[in-house]
Amino acid sequence: MTGAAQALPVALLLPGQGSQHRRMAAGLYGHEPVFTEAMDEFFDAAGPEGGPLRDDWLAERPATDIDHVTRSQPLLFAVDHALGRLVLGWGVRPAALLGHSIGELAAATLAGVFAPRDAAGLVLDRIRRLSAAPPGGMLAVAASTAEVAPYLRGDVVVGAVNAPRQTVLAGPDGPLDEVDRALREAGFVCRRVPSLSAFHSPVLEPACRGAAAVFAAARKNPPAVPVHSAYTAAPLTESDIGDPAFWARQPVAPVLFWPALEGLLATGDHLLVEVGPGQGLSQLVRRHPAVRRGSSAVVSLLPARPGPPEADRAAVAAAAERITAAGWPAAPASGDRGRPSRRAAAG
Fold first, then answer.
1. What pTM, to 2 d.p., does this model score?
2. What is the count of structural domains for the chain?
3. Residues 124, 164: one domain?
4. Rounded Cα distance, 7 and 326, in Å
5. Pair 255, 297 in one domain
6. Among 107, 65, 282, 78, which residue's Cα sits nearest to residue 195?
7. Which of 173, 193, 213 is the last residue of a domain?
């Protein structure tokens, strides 16, 4: 293929809670100018909270646990958005965006629904509210929603449908531990998701009260690119975008990632590019029939596991080569991308 007109349409996938890790994508900071600028814009918009967020993001031993809501949520949003900006800076024009959990807010911002500065304020308001919620967690189970249903108890609910046999449960720590033990005894494979909060469960509902007023005050625009919502399993509508309650309830509502992915791929085959830490969404979408038969393809921007800064840069370079080989405009050479910004170099 020789041009974007012949290339598969690109869909950007933006991960959410559970994909975070220490220094996620930090190897790009100061080496990828577009990424660096987007991260600095977020930290600037965060005001007094921006400095501690930046320091903990870059630290080998952050002062606040990266899995705490005050770190995982804003930094996931910022990294997803900045990586999306990086890919757009290569000349890629996505046909669709699909975010998981906080990744949906990052997707909406990339699509122009929210201005980046406004979105930063919305994220910070969200984490202030959620930080006061009772402790809880999330549990990934290799089972269908029907299989886990008999084990749900004590405010433990289905928090995400990631694949036909990949269900995430959420709830208070005590009841979630009981459900975990019962499922393991029944022979199911379970894994705790890195989270100190029961995202996508009613446990967070009291903390989210009042958030709708903040979203109501935020300016919203029609998306420049279709955003396939993991909460409705359909593209965002004008009604969704204009409804403050839709956005305010996202930390409480279940994530329907697999139904949303099926809706996206029902529109045609895509090059699915994961722009976020890890390769969790890439692993999920490789299970889809369109990817298994090779008509759709997957590219991950970052390594599957945390590593040295050089690993982040090598992964981005490899992803750029794959996107170029798929028929999209060539990304800038690594030498052109490698000049540190003044602010990042000073940091």
1. 0.94
2. 2
3. no
4. 6
5. yes
6. 65
7. 193
Q: Is the same domain home to 181 and 110?
A: no
Q: What is the pLDDT of residue 334?
A: 52
Amino acid of residue 44: D
- Cα-based distances in Å from 49 to 56, 67, 342: 11, 17, 21
Q: Both 250 and 179 in a single domain?
A: no
Return d(Cα 148, Cα 283) in angstroms, integer: 22
- Torsion-angle region of 103 (φ positive above 0: left; ψ -120 to 50: alpha; else: beta): alpha
CA distance 296 to 220: 32
Structure tokens at 85: 């900006």
CATH at 161 = 3.30.70.250
Q: What is the pLDDT of residues 266-289, one digit of tens each?
A: 999 999 999 999 999 999 999 999
Are 122 and 105 in contact by the 8 Å Cβ rule? The answer is yes
- The conformation of residue 187, written as its DSSP 8-state character, comes to T
* Unique residue bearing structure tokens 């930290």: 43
On whether both 286 and 335 belong to a single domain, the answer is yes
DSSP state of 302: S
Of 22-31, 241-250, 338-347, the range with the lowest mean pLDDT is 338-347
Q: What is the mean pLDDT of residues 179-185?
A: 98
Structural domain of 156 = 136-193
- In the predicted model, is pLDDT for residue 346 greater than 50? no
Q: How far apart are CA 152 and CA 16, in angstroms?
A: 23
Given the structure tokens 């038969």, which residue do they identify? 293
